[in-house]
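Quick one: structure tokens for this chain, please?
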Amino acid sequence: MRTVREAGPLIRELREERGWAQAELARRANVSRTFVIDLESGKATVETSKFMDVFQALGFEVAIRNTETGQVRW
């Protein structure tokens, strides 16, 4: 994914796979439900640290992949 807008649907999908309401994800990530709503809708101005907290709450790490070489960096 290249933008926060692209992350929104993925986050919604991962949350729904777990059967969690937005409030449950917010609680687990220690963010507000409003933040989860904004993130899932692709709002581009979300805070990076909270963005990472949401992925951690879902059980994922974020890696960086070079678009030219495909090399993944942590």
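Strands lie at 64-65, 72-73.
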